[in-house]
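fyi for ur records
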Amino acid sequence: MTGSMVSPLLTLATASGSWIHDIGPVAVQLGPLAIRWYGLSYVLGFVAGWWLLSRLSRRGLIAIPPDRVGDAAMYFVLGVVLGGRLGYAILYDPALFVTFGKSFPFWALLEINKGGMASHGGIVGTIIASVVIARGFKDADGNRVGKCPPQHIMDTIAAVCPIGLGLGRLANFINGELLGRIVAMPGKAGPWWAVRFPQEVFDQHAPSLTPQQELDMRAVAARYARPGDETFSQQYQRLLDTLHAGGERAMSIKRDLGPLLASRHPSQLYQFAAEGLVLGAVLWLIWRKPRKPGVVGCWFLITYGVLRVVTEFWRLPDGHLAVQRIAGLSRGQWLSVVMVVCGLVLLRHFTRKDAQKLGGWGVKRAATTPA
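which gave:
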């Protein structure tokens, strides 16, 4: 069974099953410049965060002066990007520190365009940025304005960051990365809500195929190859490019490739709903009233940690890790457990602390204008 001779029975079995992921990672192609959805998710997240911080500042809900919101946003950008990348390298792929390539930017640690960001590292980065911002900003006379407790800035970014977290998970889904658990093996009909990811072929969690399915997979990839595509990886990447381009050839690829893919939980969408929508709703509900500095941030640690532990039961751990689970939990889940414990301990401390309550978007205040 080769090429278009994929079993009609298998095709029929999956025709009404789960959707085949056919979204490409590139949003806009401008000549040699490719603008990717993953990068756009970060840009949109930062822009939305800056806009929301500006609104909060003008309403007098946060200590950051309106004319300094842009400076504060830049600190947060650096905290998220540097913290996220360093966190990923330290926690999941230390080889990035010692790997160098032949093309720019040469050092693998700087190749953010290839993915590899850790949300736990980004959280640490934003905490450090919050401490810097809480020192205030110098005005024209050399005086510091906007000085406040670091916990207040942490509360502020905790309420804002679910936007970026949610957009990041949508980008993970578009890229076909961070795959979910298999609910139906190749050749079996999957439920309507499951997704078949063609990218799984390059993933460490690729399903085991029968010898015949292996031959079918190679034959399908060879059908869409061009001269010079000698290896299976090159041929399959060409197949993905053709699939993402759409059209009749993409429909043909779906028909032939569909029976050879597993149906999976769309765990990226689960985490988008949890970390973007649910987390944001919880934090903004808590912050409706003024709170002592640190309270909202603690609820972020607790809520995010619990949601991450729950949703990762449907998400597969990073396949390149030698030890993927410890006592049944992934590395990301154990880090989230630590977050929950820290959040509970600190929440008890901050609620008992004698401090002025800040924030509270449900309380009307006089608007603030730049000096």
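The longest strand covers residues 26-30. thats all i got for now
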